[in-house]
Fold:
Amino acid sequence: MNGPSVLILDNGAHSIKAGFSKSSTDEARIIPNAIVRSKGDRRMYIGPEIDSCRDNFALHYRLPFEKGFLNDWDTEKAIWDRAFQDNVLAANPRDLSLLVTEPYFNLSKIQNTYDQIVFEEYEFQSYYRAPGAALIPFGTLFSPEYGVVIPECMVIVDTGFSFTHVVPILSGSIVWSAVRRIDVGGKLMTNHLKEIISYRHYNMMDQTYIVNTIKETCCYVSQSFASDLEECRRPRRNIIVQEYVLPDFSTNNPGFVRQPAHLRKVPLTEEEARMPVLFVENERFSVPELLFNPSDIGLDQAGLPQTIAHCISLLPTDVQGLFWANIGLVGGNAKYPGIEERL
Structure:
């Protein structure tokens, strides 16, 4: 392939996934898309610097995205500047072309700002922006089933930080008239978990980083919500409860999950018994359940299965079966254990 190398930025609201088209590896660099201020050391960390923060207690976040749209370009530009440095991506925009993702139904004024920043501020040679799902036909999401052949009809469930979108793709193009959105994303679920924990256990409304880690470590999608809820009626003596040992940033000890008391074969040491513990029970599955029942928190919207069915019903009748056969899951919430089986 001749011409400049292409810098690929999946510019998500929670994290940026970055790589090069001519890279010798398929590994992407994951960069937090935020600026944070640590209450402990009172330092500011920008983008890739967040990984070096050792005191994650009560972090204050400044995000470039709000309600799914990029509206703080000062913050985003500061993050991109750090990401392009030699010790991160080592990218010189003047020598590169850029492929960047943008939100679904992006506003024209925001798109114009994308164009201005890319060409006037960074001076990329050329660039192309597209919604994340539009790039799926060029990837390997369906490769295990089809090999190198890409299906003509597919439905992509893109469940990310701000929203969950159901996106039909026909012959490589998004069918925009059938795209549907659920106002449930990773941010909402983290905030919901913060409220539950703060009501039942400790006040953790300022502990976004810790609660998000608990969500990613402990939560799963229940295959039988009613049965799991019934199991949790035996407080702290059921098969669902987990003990999450809270982190101690003064000693750089991260949080971790340990066996609950009724399943523990070896007694705790005196030091282990003094560790602050959070008991996580029905929160483990009731938080991801919002994807399937948004009405649990008062959202007047259908759940994910109903939204997929409605989306496919808007497509041509003779190919609806092909769309049902090719449903792909992408986005951070797709990592919940059990979500594929539940769908």
